Amino acid sequence: MDNSLKSDTRVSLFHASLVWPLQLEPLLGKNAEGRHWEVFEGTQEKHGWRRLDDEFTDDTSQFKERHYREFVSFLPYVQRFLYGEGRSPHVSAADPPGNSPMHVFRRTDIAALRLTLRQGQVPIELHIVHLDLYFFHDLDLVQLNVEVRADNLALDSVRDILFRFGRAYPSGWNEEGEGLHNSYMAEWLGHDGQVVARSDAGHRDKYLGFVCEHRSPCISEHWACLLRPLVLAHSTEPGELRYRLIEYHRMPVMAFIALEQPRLLSREEWVRIGLATIMHPDETLPINEPAVAEFEQRYCQDRFWTDSDVGPNTRFICSGNSLTVVGDASKPFFIDSERGVLAQFRHQYFMVFLIAHLHRAALLVFSEVLVDAVNDLDIRNDVSVRRFKRRIRANFETFLRFTHRYWFHELSERPHVQAIFRLCANHLRNDDLYNEVRSEIREMSNYLDSDSQRRQSNTVVRLTVITILGLIATVTTGYFGMNIIPFGEGSVLERVLHGLVATSIFIVLVLSAVSRSKRLSDFLEAVADEKLGLIDKIKVLWGSLFSKER
C-alpha cells in the first residue's frame, strides 16, 4: 500500500452487516404447491437454521427498549409489513390479525469469521452477531444477513475488510493464482474454534469449469456452506430449495465505524471510507471522477455532522450498495447499544437498508421472470403459448400483491430515517426500475388481453355465420312444417339409419361452415355492402367457398 495512504487511526468499534438478496427457483415435485420457508422449516433437522420468533413475545420483560424504538420509528403500514397486524381482545373471528409476511431463520452454530485479507497478513477475527435468512410471502427471493463486529482495528484494515469481504466469487486471478479483490482466506469458526468452512478462491479451475459448463457463476465454498440446504440453481448438488444470483457478486453492506476524533479525518480519508466497497484500497484517488468530486453532495447525509467540539459529529454515507455510519467513539450516545446510534444502526437503519434492497431485488426478479417467459415462448407450439400466458398472468398478479404489500415511498415520519431511505432508494434507482417493470408487465398484460379479445372476436364471427346459415335452414323447415321427409314411417332400423345419415350430413355441413366461416363472413359483409353489384357479390361467394387462399 502506498505510504501516503496509510493511517494510524484506530477504529474502537466496528459493526458490519451484509444484506445479500438471492432469487429462489420455483418449487417442483411434491412441494410445488408449498412455500419456500415452509419447506425450509420442514427440513430443519438436517441443518442449523431455526425459525426465529420476533421480539413480540408473551414475556414483556424480554422486549427491550431498542425494539420499541425500532417499532415506533416506522409508519403503521410499514409496521404491519415488518411485525404483522396489531392484536386486540376485540377481534372478529372472520378477520383475525395477520402475521408479518416476512419469515426469519437464524443459525447460532457459527461463532466467528476469520479473515486473512492478503497473503502473509495476520488473520483478523470478527465476532458473529447474527446469521439470518429473510423469506417473504409471495416473493421468490431470500435475503441473507451476516452481522459481524470487532474492537480496536486499524482504519486501513476496516477499509480493506469492506472492500474484500462480501464477494460471492473472485472476479479474476493474479499471476500467483490468488483471487482478485476478495479476501485471501475466509473461514467460519464454530464455538469450539474449529473451522466449519473456508473459502476456495484459489481453485481457479473450479470456477472456470463451472462457468464453461453451466453459463452461470459459481459461488465460493464458504458461502455455499453457509446457505445450505439452499443450493445454487445450476450446480449438480441435490436439493429442493435452489437459488440463483440476482446481481453482481458484490453484496450490499452496512458499516458502523466508531473513531476517536473523526473530525481529524482528511477529505481523502472520508472518500475512501464512504466508497470503500468499490474503491481499491491501493489505487490512487481519482479526483476527477464525479463520485469523488461530488462526494459530499451525492453520498453524505450530514444532519448530525456539525464538525464542532460539542458534536454529535455523526456522518451517514450512502452509495446505495453501501451505508456507512461514522461517529465519535468518545461520545457514549454514539456507541450505546440500547438507546444510541449503534442501536439505531442495528435496528431502524438496518430495516431501512433491508427494505430498499428488497424493493430492488424483487423488481429485478419480476423482470427476470418476464425475460425468461419470452425466451421460452415458441409461438408455433400451443403448449408453449399456454405456458407463456400462465406465467405472464401469474407474474402480473404477484406484482400487484407486491405493490400493495411491500412497495412504499414513505417509511417513517422521522426526517433522518426517511432521508436515508430516499438516499438509498435513489442511488439504487428503485423508482425508475419500478416504472420500467410496471410498464413491461402492463405491455405483456395488454398483449394477452388483446389476443384474448381477438380470439373471442373470431369466435363471435364464426358463431354469427353458423347462426345465419342455421336461420335459413330453420325458416325453410318451418315453412314446410318441420318434417320435409317423413321420419316416423318405416321400421325401427330404417328410422335409426335415417337418423344417423341425417345427423352425419348436418355435422358435415356445420363443420364445413365453421371451417369457412371466416370467408363466409367476408361474403356476408359483401352482401351488406350496397355499393357492390350482384355479380361482385356472387364472385365474393364463389371465392369464399372454393378459393384456397387464406
Structure description:
This protein is an alpha+beta fold and about 550 residues long. Among the domains are: about 250-340, no CATH class; about 345-470; about 470-545, no CATH class. Helix content is about 45%, strand content about 15%. The protein is built from 18 helices and 14 strands. Strands 1, 2, 3, 4, 5, 6, 7, 8, 9, 10, 11, 12, 13 and 14 form a 14-stranded mixed sheet that branches. A hairpin with a 3-residue loop joins strand 13 (about 315-320) and strand 14 (about 320-330). Helix 12 packs antiparallel against helix 13, helix 13 (about 380-405) packs across helix 15 (about 430-480) and helix 17 (about 515-530) packs antiparallel against helix 18 (about 535-545). The longest helix has about 50 residues, at about 430-480. The termini are far apart. The relative contact order is 0.10.
Write the topology of this structure.
Elements: E1 10-24, H1 36-42, E2 50-51, H2 65-72, H3 76-83, E3 102-106, E4 110-116, E5 124-136, E6 141-154, H4 155-164, E7 185-190, E8 195-198, H5 204-214, H6 221-227, E9 231-232, E10 242-245, E11 253-259, H7 267-274, H8 290-293, H9 295-299, E12 300-301, E13 315-318, E14 322-328, H10 332-335, H11 341-346, H12 348-375, H13 382-405, H14 415-428, H15 430-479, H16 492-515, H17 517-528, H18 534-546
Parallel strand pairs: 9-10, 11-14
Antiparallel strand pairs: 1-6, 1-10, 1-11, 2-3, 3-5, 4-5, 4-7, 5-6, 7-8, 12-13, 13-14
Mean pLDDT: 85
Count the DSSP helices.
Answer: 18
Outline: elongated
Structural class: alpha+beta
Radius of gyration: 34 Å
Percentage of β-strand residues: 15-25%
> Care to count the β-strands?
14
Intertermini distance:
75 Å
